[in-house]
Amino acid sequence: ETLFTCATQEELPFTEYKKLHTPQVEGAVIDKTENLIRLEEGVENFSMNFKQYNEDITYNNGYRDIVCEPEIVWSYQTLYIDWNNDKEFSGENEIYAAVGNNSGDNTFDDPDGNVTEGWDRTITVPAETAPGTYRMRVVYMGPDPWSNDWPSKVFTEFYNEIRNGIAYDFEIAISPASGIEGIASGKVYYDAHAGLLISPNPTQTTVYNLSGQIVLQVNNTTEISVSSLEKGVYIANVGGEMIKFIK
């Protein structure tokens, strides 16, 4: 699922940092929480692909337009997830390891990553994390002074300064486990990756939204595609077995 993308320079999120050692609250973090990262209770990890804007950027220095090529040299990435919902990124398992380097072929620790395809990062969810909504902040910056534990200093010793960088906020929504008993027993289950409801036998399937309206009906099949449905939570009656799933 694409959380956001920028096709033109005008769409790029940008904040100009002007005063050293002075936290800038307004616009200091780019809010991308509108599109949730949706997980289900019990998920151990999830992966995200991060891409950079890859066109030339033009800015005016007060005298003339300057054309710059985008680059990621000197950039490191770290992220924080407020798993205890105390509005701070300092609890146990809330600060994730930094990735990246200061070379021209920076891959953010993804050996197959590149400027065109982006970089993949796998994010661990702490065991027994309860259903709920959790804030995630992704930070790109060139830390100074350098130290291996610099992610723990961004909001303390670094005065909230994101040096030569940018920050994005996302929200992770973890829903209660759907209780699909059939996953282990070979009965009905939902394959989120393929977007299919799977039944061991051909059967009739009726899918309802949370308002009780029928949004899909299929007869005599073992694989029911839900690709036509909008993202959301649904209840399906598959041959008499009721399951809930999140698309």
Helix/strand-derived class? mainly beta
Shape: elongated
User: CATH topology of the largest domain, what is it called?
Assistant: Immunoglobulin-like
Mean pLDDT across the residues is: 84
| Poorly predicted tracts of residues | 179-186
Number of domain modules: 2
What is the level 1 CATH name of the largest domain? Answer: Mainly Beta
Ends distance: 10 Å
The share of residues in helices is under 10%
H/E order of the elements? EEEEEEEEEEHEEEEE
Helix count equals 1
Which architecture of the largest domain would the CATH scheme give at its second level?
A: Sandwich
Annotation, overall tally of beta strands: 15
Fraction in beta strands: 35-45%
Largest sheet: 6 strands, mixed
**What is the C-alpha radius of gyration, as a whole number of Å?**
22 Å
Descriptive account of the structure:
With about 250 residues, the protein is an all-beta fold. The chain is about 0% helix and about 40% strand. It has one helix spanning about 180-185, and strands at about 30, 35-40, 45-50, 55-60, 65-70, 75-80, 100, 120-125, 130-140, 165-175, 190, 195-210, 215-225, 235-240, 240-245. The strands form 4 sheets. Strands 1, 2, 6, 7, 9 and 10 form a 6-stranded mixed beta sheet that branches. The longest helix is centred in the C-terminal third of the chain and has 4 residues, at about 180-185. Residues about 180-185 have low confidence and may be disordered.
